Amino acid sequence: MAKVTLATIAQRTGLSKFAVSRSLSGKDGVSDETRRRVREVAAELGYARPSPEPELLTLGVIFHDTDLINSELHLLIQNGAQSEAERLGYRLNMRWTHEPEEIQAIVRSCSGAVLVGPHDRETFARVRTLGRPIVRQGWLEPLEQADHVGGTDHEAGAAVANYLLALGHRRIVYVHGTPGFRGRVERFYGVREVLEKQADVEFREMRFQADSRFTEHLRAAHAEGFHPTAFFCAHDGLALTVVSELLRLGYRIPENASVVGFGDYSAATQISPQLTTVKVFGQQMGAACVRLLDDRINGRIPADIPVRVQITSRIIERASCGPIRLSETAVPILPIAG
């Protein structure tokens, strides 16, 4: 049997499809007699009105707009969230802001939201009053009662320490850069946790202030008789600086020194030698945030049980790391600045 459509009813009644549509939907613009006639013919023909498309729920994804150092990670999170939201049938409202009032207004208009980056306590307090599911991608206080999706910073630091030990390195530096970033500190704790158990390992941390450079720290270490052979850098940007400075000073990489980064962002493969680094799966983090919100919205998780989701990182080996071979090429000794 042929499908009965608005055109079928229009042909039977001699009316336009417009008149038929308005008659069946109960809208004005047609007489009561026309409406009655159209409905009778529709019932006679067995016409079934198509079900309206369900309205999509909206999820908010709000990025802290001053957290520029993680911009590439945030782009990956955005891509993952968009793909997963489309798969699960949600709209996304993407915003970049750190203003608590604006964030509160965005969350109020959504069925749930992801807050990405270092949003402050006032922001969290405001959005909690709205009763919407909230997933955080950023650091929490210990045992904070909030859902969270993140990486494995501490674990990654420990893995890099074991990796460098296996290559034979025993004088290792963690290049921290500007202090104050929680993820960098967790990586440091992970490295230290492993290396402090090794009696034959000398381990130091290099913290940069705004007015100092990597070379100055390295020169100071040499002056104290410490000549590191491996550098684990808190992020790929620092690793690029370290590689460039070491090459400028006459080091051969990885013969004299190995360098490890963190992130596996685009720059890691745009230098020579290409950078060994820890890959952070930002796209999978974004997808996990949306899945966790979906679970909350659909009541699959007890409301009083906060959830932590960790996306495990991975060491990506490239040419900037290798076994140390001091017997073949001596490490340059830097002159002490006078």
Automatic annotation (TrEMBL):
SUPFAM superfamilies: lambda repressor-like DNA-binding domains, Periplasmic binding protein-like I. The keyword DNA-binding applies. Keywords: DNA-binding, Transcription, Transcription regulation. It comes from the Bacteria. InterPro entries: HTH_LacI, LacI/GalR-like_sensor, Lambda_DNA-bd_dom_sf, Peripla_BP_I. The keyword Aminoacyl-tRNA synthetase does not apply. GO terms for molecular function: DNA-binding transcription factor activity; transcription cis-regulatory region binding. Residues 4-47 form the HTH lacI-type domain. PROSITE patterns: HTH_LACI_2. This is LacI family transcriptional regulator.
